[in-house]
Design goal:
about 375 residues, alpha/beta, Rossmann fold, 7-stranded parallel β-sheet, 7-stranded mixed β-sheet
Length: about 375
């Protein structure tokens, strides 16, 4: 049995794969402690995982704003000493980071004590934390075809993002009934990522009545704190009642994606991995201010693989027409689903587990953990 610290907080895109990996490690008899932030999205997402161990680590996002940067530096210093104490106390066999502002301090603490460090980057443009810490890692997991010049070739592995076990394709009609949709009508879901997206929420509110006329029911996941939960009632052209659902958060994402005929979404790597797993055709609208424009790179690769379409935020005026053209075209939808099934063939989670177990094999009585010599 091995012990792992998994730093994965701050966004759903980091926490969801951390949960997937933590559950899988525990199922194989290992111990896993997941380190998360104090953000609301983390607290909401972990509610249904009482069987896992979570610890909140001091953290603040990186920013060039002078006040925010000072806060970032102070929090990172506090987090480093927190990580040092945690590593000394738990004596983990491996420390795993999924990127973001919660990762650096714990990875550095692990490196100080010569604990094997593992990094996972799901975006097709590696983030700042992964780029800076890659040279410390015994393993760096990157998307297929992506390289990092500072990572030793022997440390690099290409594999996808771990997906939580409850994210799986379900029978469409049963999923629609479970989510409160009418199986007679098409279902369009709008996702703005774990933080929500105001521009997508506004588009959904503006267009929901015209979509209802076409027999398209809408579910908009607005993000915590951005909208109150409500159900709006409309009529189709022939007078049939149809509803639109606005919800701040969804903890049954596998069921929601399975119920959806089409999704309009931001292009975070975690969301894309779940869309692929549920074989849900998608129109991606990358967040234009994402670091290094990584969402555009994610979306472009997804479109080239045939999972859906990409529209820039500057073309939001074209979105309604694109939605109608796709969701009412059964041939195109079937083509997208077939491509998504092909994209989901690789089982990255099992490959990662096998590699981690090989990496962290330890003697029966390991020596005490001591800092590396200066």
């Amino acid at each position: 049995m091995s012990r792992f610290l998994i730093s994965c907080g701050g966004t759903g895109g980091h926490l969801s794969p951390g949960i997937a990996l933590g559950e899988a490690l525990v199922s194989r008899g290992h111990q896993a402690t997941l380190l998360i932030s104090n953000k609301k999205v983390d607290a909401r997402l972990i509610e249904k995982y009482a069987h896992l161990t979570f610890l909140r680590i001091p953290s603040a996002p990186f920013t060039l704003n002078p006040v925010g940067f000072v806060k970032f530096v102070i929090k990172q210093g506090v987090a480093f000493f927190y990580g040092v104490n945690l590593v000394r106390k738990q004596r983990p066999d491996g420390v795993i980071g999924f990127g973001g502002f919660t990762t650096a301090s714990v990875i550095l603490a692990g490196a100080v004590f010569n604990v094997p460090v593992v990094l996972h980057e799901a975006n097709r443009v590696p983030g700042r934390a992964i780029r800076l810490l890659g040279r410390l890692a015994r393993r760096v997991y990157l998307p297929p075809g992506i390289m990092l010049k500072d990572v030793r070739p022997t440390a690099l592995r290409h594999m996808g993002l771990p997906v939580r076990k409850e994210i799986a394709s379900e029978p469409r009609e049963a999923a629609q009934r479970e989510m409160g949709f009418d199986p007679r009508f098409k279902v369009l879901t709008i996702l703005g990522g774990s933080q929500g997206a105001s521009s997508l929420n506004d588009w959904a509110s503006d267009k929901v009545s015209s979509l209802a006329l076409e027999g398209i029911q809408v579910c908009c996941v607005t993000g915590l704190g951005k909208h109150v939960a409500e159900v709006r009632e409309y009529r189709t052209r022939n007078g049939s009642p149809i509803k639109a659902h606005f919800i701040p958060f969804c903890d049954r994402m596998g069921t929601l994606l399975s119920a959806s005929d089409l999704v309009v979404s931001r292009a975070g790597a975690g969301t894309i991995a779940e869309l692929i797993r549920c074989t849900t055709p998608t129109i991606l609208i990358p967040y234009p201010f994402a670091a290094d424009n990584h969402q555009w790179a994610n979306a472009e690769f997804f479109e080239k693989q045939g999972g859906g379409l990409v529209i820039s935020q500057e073309r939001m005026n074209d979105l309604t027409a694109e939605v109608r053209d796709v969701i009412l075209n059964d041939w195109l939808m079937q083509k997208f689903r077939a491509n998504l099934k092909r994209m989901d063939r690789a089982n990255s989670l099992d490959d990662m587990l096998n590699d981690l177990e090989e990496l962290t094999e330890t003697p029966t009585n390991p020596a005490p953990v001591r800092p590396k010599a200066a």
